Amino acid sequence: MAEDCVFCKIGLGEIPGELLYSDDLAFVIRDINPKAPTHLLVIPSEHVTYLTSFNQDREALLGHMVLVAREMAQREGLAESGYRLVINQGSDSGQEVPHLHLHVLGGGRLSVMG
């Protein structure tokens, strides 16, 4: 955990957040600044800033995050119509919180990225 990380504090219950899911490896909250009708964040419980710190020893965590995202998309009713998974890395990508997280976006027609 990083002392000043807002996601770490939410995960520990020090800051309120709409906790939708939690297990030993990750938790899910709604984004407070949504970019789609449904905008969830899948966040590893362990403080990891960037994908560059991942190696084969951590690939299970990333796979777990994707499976949690899939489960949450089903729970939110997005599975049939479709949804987008996004990981932003660094300030140029739009990453606002320096703690790795996976965005689950859906609930309506999303603009095409390109």
Summarize the structure.
By secondary structure, this protein is an alpha+beta fold.
CATH topology assignment: HIT family, subunit A
Rg from alpha-carbon coordinates: 14 Å
Span between termini: 35 Å
* Share of helix, binned: 10-25%
Summarize the main sheet: 5 strands, antiparallel
Helix/strand class: alpha+beta
In the CATH hierarchy, what is the superfamily?
A: HIT-like
Average pLDDT number: 92
Q: Which outline best applies? A: globular
Provide the domain count: 1
Please supply descriptive tags for the structure shown above.
114 residues, alpha+beta, HIT family, subunit A, 5-stranded antiparallel beta sheet, 2 helices, 5 strands
Explain what this protein looks like in three dimensions.
With about 110 residues, the protein is of the alpha+beta class. It has a single domain (about 5-105), classed as HIT-like (HIT family, subunit A). It is about 20% helix and about 20% strand. It is built from 2 helices and 5 strands. A 5-stranded antiparallel beta sheet has the order 1-2-3-5-4. A hairpin with a 7-residue loop joins strand 2 (about 25-30) and strand 3 (about 40-45). The protein is globular, with a radius of gyration of 14 Å. About 25% of the residues are buried.
Please give the structural blueprint.
Layout: H1 6-11, E1 19-22, E2 26-30, E3 38-44, H2 59-75, E4 83-86, E5 102-106
Antiparallel strand pairs: 1-2, 2-3, 3-5, 4-5
